Fold these 2 entries.
Entry 1:
Amino acid sequence: MFSLHVQHIINNKKSIIVMILMLIVIFTLSPTAFKMVWEGHEQVNADITDFSRGDYDLLVRASQSEIERELGVVEENYLGVGNGGITYEQWENIKKDPRIETAAPVASLGFFTKIDQMYQLPKEEGSNRYTVSYKTTDGVNTYLINQQTAYLFKDNEVVYDYFYPIELMNIFGEFDNANFEIPSSYHPVIAIDPQEEKELTGIDFSILNKNINNVQTFPEESQLIPLIDIAESSTPITTEVLIERLDITHQEINDLKQAVDLSPNQSLSDLEYYAELRGEHVEERDEVKEALDTIEETDEQVHIINFFEHLSPFEQEWYMIDDDYNIVMESEYDIDEHGEAGRSSGYLSQNVIYKSLSPKYQKTQNGLSIELLDYEGEIPIHRDLEQVQFQEYDVNGDNSDLLNLFQVDTVTVGEYVDSLAASPMGIYHYQYGHLKETGEQLKPTHHPGSFLSLPANGLISIDWADEFKGEAPIDAIRVKVAGLSGYTEEASQKIQHVAEEIEEMGLHVDIVAGASHQNIDVQVEGIGMVVMPWTTLGAAESIINSWNVFSIVISISFILVALLSFVARIRTMEHELYEDKIRLGLIGWKPSTIQTFYRAQWGIQIVLSVVLSLVILLLSFGIDILMLIGWSITIFIVMIIHASFTVLYKQKNNKTHKPRQSFLIANIYYYRRHIQAASLQLLFSTSVIAFLLTVQQVVSNRISVTDLGQYIHFQINELQIILLLSVVLLTVYTLSESIYRMWKEREEQIEFLKVMGWQNKDIRRSYTKETLSWVSPSVVMGNIIGIIAVVVFFPVNLTVVGINLIVTLSILFALTIVLKVGLRQILMRGVS
Amino acid sequence: MDINVMNLSKTYESNVEQKKVLDQVTFKVNKGEWVNIIGRSGSGKTTLLKCLSGIMSADRGSIINIGDLPIHSKSEEDRREFRRQHIGYIYQDYQLFPAYTAKQNVMLPELPYQNESILLKRAEELMEQLNIEHRQDALPNQLSGGEQQRVAIARALLNNPDIFVCDEPTGNLDRSTRDEVLQILKQLQEEGRTILFVTHDYDVIEYGDRIFEMDDGRLEEVSQKTLIIEKPIKN
Ligand SMILES: Nc1ncnc2c1ncn2[C@@H]1O[C@H](COP(=O)(O)OP(=O)(O)OP(=O)(O)O)[C@@H](O)[C@H]1O
Ligand SMILES: [Mg+2]
């Protein structure tokens, strides 16, 4: 008996080796996949714990914006509108809840304009034309805000006349220097609670609660609001000063005056005054302007002065420009060192706040668009501005109610920016996005009508917010739940709980834990396609969920395909052995003896592969309980399948075939035994491939572009690839074996086709057509199933369907090529 | 079409050995003749038929002319084309395709080259002619040996070939069925077709015009008398 077994093994060595190899693959890969999926899941959890618990857990607001409701993401500039809606009382209620560690309110007041300031340029020799240009930039384009040209005429270093635009009246020619005024700039001021904000950010804001008195610049009786300037905030305005030396004599100027009927005592500027304020002498003014503008310069110099890079917008200290056109603070100015210069002066005009409304978003086919509303100068305006006059200076009356911002400190948030950026919707730092085409980074212009928002420039105490915004001034409260160490399942539940209770107060709550950026394509009219990093809320949860979907889909399909390969394999084996068994019967073996013999044969194979797979598993992973459990389950399932299959096979062996009208169907039906497992496997693996590729596509629009998602995605990908690869390999194996077996069985037929005179190309065509006629439905169906599976989980767009179509066609194309090559080989050499 | 063979040799080459199966075979068959070929098993009869009909290529120097066509110098494609148009081939084991019905099997040779409905008509005609029209929708495994061979003949007739090459077509048939098949072939010969017929069966010899014997790769014509008296056919 023993020698018989050995003989049998030698005779069937090829098919036994294949079987053992396949079993080893199944026995090692299934538990490995099982383990990898398990650990991958933990890995993702750990990532979320580490990365996603930002500085707060909940974002409480009065309501959601419309665009947010529609897209499920929050725009970066969500605070810019600042409609408020939460009362101090509501905030207090939230704050005193013991489960809540921090409840930090935010109230966006809007944009304050900078205290108007003049600056004086150093004295220049001779007569000069000054052209001052103010420019802003959005990071890509530069826009002219304003340009002013003014003239200073000197004789022996004594000024004898001016000519300047009306805006510079009372400014330009003081102290015989050229004086200009910095254009309006707009600065978002946000009210916070110093205590809570410190808990959230670690930055000390306590100075905001200080009482300030006796600051001379302000009307004595008014109230001063302490303000902290944020050092990083800068206003994108540059000042370019062009100074052109003019070779013109006093006499020539007098001639010009005479030509326009001015007496020598009058100034050329008087014409501007008459023209602009009284509407008189407009022609003469224009004449003078043209005459002056066309004077050839004999020399020129250009200076760039970056006021806004150096100075905080709420600074009350004056600054000066030294002889080298550098900015020097008045307190540091030394006439001997810096040269003789008059200091600048300023006056208050902060009775007005500007609020910029939300851009008008429009949903388009592949994202959003923002309409261009207007231009101011050259600057494109995408948001409407609302001007709110919150107080009025009463010249004669009581001004004790007047509010004035007073800078008391400057804070650098730079070192916190990273952690703040990890929980988006910080107020200190925004991510603006870039032009899709060129990748150039964009930033807001100085104008509040910019579609991008400036981060907070100044902070004041929340206690003042109602003075500006009334009853319910708070826009948002950032809530941190107490006693959590990370984003775990338990933490998630606790957060959920608190969120629900706050929602019962009639407020809108978003779970921020795990929030991260997501790129949204926005077509900004006048700018181009802009990729903006908006914020997904509660991304952590959706990542975990989608991850679960991934692993479930992959493991199920791996198991299905692996088991199908196994079934196909035993089927082939049983078929091969069938005649052996009959022969043994013919030479007088009892059926029970035959059965025992083949059971023993199967036993040898199973034991061999069990032992080998165990060795492989132990060598690669050591003793791993999880994996050993997976391994035992797999072995059990394989045994069950084998047992039930050998019973079923006997009953099924009587082949029934019915006449078929079509040659194609006749063949497919007749050889279905070879086709079934292969086409099912093809169906599974294409549906998995389609599912994964499509999900990849969909997810890359929803999660994976998020900073967090991408990281996780990458991790999962490795797993997917290993599993997917084995799914594909097993399918390819079964497919090629099935096709091979089927052609082998029809070898004689192929030979006879040649005898009948068929040309090779006709044989090839006929067999390719036949094979494709069952392969393609599997592939197409598989892809459809894949897409349907995706639709269950995600919204699907046309691109996804398109990609799917391409995948389907490529698989079919590849299969066709392989078939043709295989057939060519067979026709040349015969099936072997 | 007459057949003119000169110096036909065939050597099977394997890694192990070279085996000369046909050795300078020379013979001539006239159009409309029925030639029987006899010989021991393994003597090379099948090989001869295959070389003759271009299924195999013969050794260098062999000359095979069928009609005006020098088969030996033709390409594989040309030989197939020639076979399809001029040669009907029948085997002992019928070579029917198990997935197809009798009728579909008959249509098969021309399937890539002609319209299916034309083929269908032609197949029905042939089957009627061979008295198997009632079995046209049966599958091969539902047919008797005689029926199967008649289906095979109908299939070989599809293109109305000039030459019928029969490799022991009656070997599996009982006496009366065999006679039916031989009658059919006789009739085909009478219609002017050339028949090459390999057989071990002596009764068949009565149907033929001439007899060749294959012996150790050589072919010799033998007279009917000699054969019957002196050399009973061995199996
Ligand atoms: N493809 C092949 N390669 C090598 N040798 C072959 C091949 N085909 C046949 N032979 C050998 O050539 C010899 C002649 O074979 P062939 O089939 O022509 O004999 P046969 O006369 O038809 O015999 P039978 O009466 O048994 O059909 C045999 O010895 C056979 O083993
Ligand atoms: Mg033979």
Entry 2:
Amino acid sequence: MDETPSYPPIEPTDFDLIVVGTGLPQSVIAAAASSAGKSVLHLDSNSFYGSHFSSLNLDEFSSFLTSQSAVHSSHPNPPSSVAADAAEYVALDLKTRPMYSDVEITSHSSDPVEHSRKFNLDVSGPRVLFCADAAVDLMLKSGASQYLEFKSIDASFVCDADGRFSTVPDSRAAIFKDRSLSLTEKNQLMRFFKLIQGHLAASDEAENDSNARISEDDLESPFVEFLNKMRLPPKIKSMILYAIAMADYDQDSIEVCKDVLDTKIGIDRLALYHSSVGRFPNALGALIYPIYGQGELTQAFCRRAAVKGCIYVLRMPVIALLMEKESGHCKGVRLASGQDIFSQKLLVDPSFIVPVPVAPSQPDCMPESSQVINLVDAKQKVARGICIMKSSLKPDVSNFVFVYPPRSLYPEQAMAIRAVQIGSNLGVCPSGMFVLYLSTLCNDATQGKELLQAAIKSLFTLPVSGNPENSSSVHSENMEEVKPTLLWSALYTQELVMGSFESISSTSMPDGNLNYNVLLDATVKLFHQMYPQEEFFPETTSPENVEDDDGLSLES
Amino acid sequence: MHGRPRKAPKPEDAAASAAKAEKLRALQSQLLHNHHNQIYTKEALEISAKLLEANPESYTAWNYRKLAVEHNLSHSESDPDTVKSIFSEELRVVENSLKQNFKSYGAWHHRKWVLSKGHSSVDHELQLLDRFQRADSRNFHAWNYRRFIAALKGIPDEEELKYTTKLIETNFSNYSAWHNRSVLLSHLLQNKVKGFFPKEKVLVEEYEFVHQALFTDPDDQSGWFYHLWLLDQTVKPETPLLVSTWPAHGSDIIVSAEGCLDGRALSPFTSFHSDAGTFPLILYFNEAVEGVNSSTVTVKSVFTENKDLVWKPLATMCVQPLSSKHAERQSVEMILWRDVNFHFYDAHVQESSPIAYFDRLSIKKDHEPAASKWHAKTLVNEIALVRQLLSEIDCKIGKLTLARLLMAHDAMVSYMAPHSHKKVHSEEVLQLYSDLMELDPMHSQYYKEAQSLVLLQQVTSNRESLLKHCCHHRVSTSSSVGNSVCLRLNNLSLSRIGCVEQLLWVQMLDLSHNELRSIDGLEAMQLLSFLNLSHNKLSSFTALEPLRLLKLLKVLDISYNEIGAHPVDTRRYLCSSPLSHTVGSDWNFNEFVPDDAKVTNYWEAFAIFRGFNLTQLDIVGNAITDEKFKSFLIKVLPTLKWVDGEELH
């Protein structure tokens, strides 16, 4: 990154939109704006696509996290800044801030590092898609799906402090098959699902069948209270709350819970889950994962944008914003190559500190008084972890999601921990290895680490100190279960930043959810704010889209 | 496909279907032309293929193709390639037809026919079946065909059983898969295949398997049907059982002929008077059996050697019409069924109690105690589980199953310890059926009948309860009334007859004021001479068919029923017809029928009553009854002395 290669100057120098950073939201907007006929320049300082949403090999991953965790002073200003018409605009140095902290990478074995290039580690992991997700619809609608291939996630579990997995009975067939549920529990759970289905069916119909519908009072009450009212046993309640409705905070202790899920939202999440099961005939369950990692998604949207005329330049840092002296409006950016590019609209990566435009009457004080508008959520962060091991956590399945509900690891655990294990058949690691992603919301890095480490402790045999190279499984003395040995791990805490719409707009950081729904909603909203007149990916009837209208390419 | 609502046809569809019909008619007439002229050329076959691919229901076309195949085979030199291509062409046509309608009987049958010729690959059929069963896993045609192919290919039942498990795990709402499972398991259990023995172990696993379905979705009936099959496997003895007999084991029977025993003081329960010199022998089995004849049944008798007994199966036995001499000799009293004519039996008068007889009626049971312990344990377990389910959810079929389980349990307990036990659950079962009638009025008649059976079991379960229904009939002077004990089961709301095995000794039965629509089962009460069926819901003479087997019936009251009120007896799905083959052609029906009578009205009555030796008939209060009909009956039944309370001259 330091040695900026000499690029031929970008032609033209005027664009409708400049997008800085190739994270998923930026790529979607670049593709949407290109589809709407806008001229778009899409820049990234990295040599790869995806930014905070990328999938990287081991070395790239380590250096990306490190580079984004240290405070970077602004790039050295090329002396050419004065070459521009200084009378028209001023160049304002663009500052970034660290998005990651407390990065802790531990290597217990040389194996993963030696095969660094065979890894595609998701920076924003753990992430999966629900078959009925809006993201899947968007990929199909935009045509991005033609560049992607998916595989089913095989199973979904709830995990406890001893590392024991229990299947999440998420469908009628799964309830039937699951022998860990008692007969009465099966009946209660299925009856609850039927109640929800009846409610959704009645809500769909024009005339309101009040019998089947859940009352408004119930819909507004906390979901956990509704589940209690339905007399569901604790085990099932916890499965519904944390493994199907994907609640983050302990719903049972409402006084400390930061995000109480109400029944309406809970039911919507159940509906998403259920419509995901069976949306694609060859999908095994509700969830799918893109082959070669989540980073493929951003690349697919970038390719889509490129087809529509968007210009891509990687390894090109933006060093300054060009602000109009008179109005204080942003007019463009100055690239590390020294070239100035002009555009009315600018969309930047969340790691940039975006200054607020200042009234034109005080142009002099503008740089100093600039305020940050894309605020970092100071109260909440995401702790993420990646583990690499040689054997699957569950012997018979390779790709699965699981959750540690609140209080399942230790009594004070207030947040759920989400996890996804992906095997080599999804092209994310060398064959014979598995990658485990973990994440949890947390108040600070200390709390986040504590949560993740408790989970890791329950799952792995940690290598004996002094013999870190021993990669074979350590047999516990009582020979009960052999837990996999941890080969390599990375723990890091990520800031949560919401995108914003201003004269310089910015996108969001990856959130703490498994899917992209919240992120995508914000992105669609942002697009409409930026282009109120334009349709977000208009339905096309061009022949290039006709051939792949049969749906998602899903390997079974 | 299941669960796809039918759409109302649009106007443009109507036009399209008219055009299709036109095309089909043209093809059809060409096909018939070819068929009649035995034209089996390539072009002719092409026409039949076109017809079948548009309309797979054309049976004639399938038959035509079969003839064509046979014709072409006989005319081709036995070149294996030619033979093979002939059959593959047939398979292709069938496959295309099935695409049009995968539930076409004709198409599936044709495919079976082709495969059974043995010139085609069976493996390809399994792939085809996979496709069909993926499209609709409940398609029973495909399941039938699968059984056929599995047998043809010799796929072991264990493999096929695994396949049913797989499909049930995918979606357990699959009657066909459960059914095939029961068929396969029956084979495996019967043949004691390795891993499928002992039966108890397998059944326990199957119960566990089906419980998952019952609890996951109790409203889905497919699992319950399998559960019922399991229950049947549990309670059904492996060999047929002789449940009861008449005469009872060890009882003394004195058969008189020509009244030579007149005046002898005999117990009315052990003596049997027969003018014809015959007496009935009733062997009541729990299921249909074969091979009951003089070589398998031995009657030990003091005065008669076994070889002197002449056996006549009831079905073929033709009652000799009484000679006119007898008819004249008899001066018959009229039997009145009024309450004042009966008085209750005194339980303390033991000398001629029918109850002494009752105890001997049941056959001693002996079978392995270990097995029955398992049976009882299984039933108790199932009862507990269904109760648990019903405590969670109100479920019709669950209640019905509980009722069946409780009855099976009671039957099993009483079977192991006869008469020492009261029907502990019968009150609960009656309540369950009452609940069901309310919950499910559509099937209330079914529940009503089940309730009747429970009531009858209550009555017949022990001597005390039975005695409450036994009466002396006051008019007992006549010798024709062998014993004057009348079993009175009147006013019980019965809609069905049951527990007949306990009642084989009954000669006089009062079933009046019930809700009987059918009397099936009554034919086992061979001693029955006096029968009151008045004030019931019998709606046709055909419903009286069982009476034809009662050779000793003399007095019959069918007054105040609904005979003639309905054109069709919906209960029996029968309508009267002279074409009905229950009547032989040797009967000159017209001789009896008044000229202006509606033949169909009388045909049924004629078919039932001809050859009866009734002396008394009450038929008033039925829609069919009028003077004309009465005079018809008098002609058909020459032995009648009393009709509707009037003496005939």
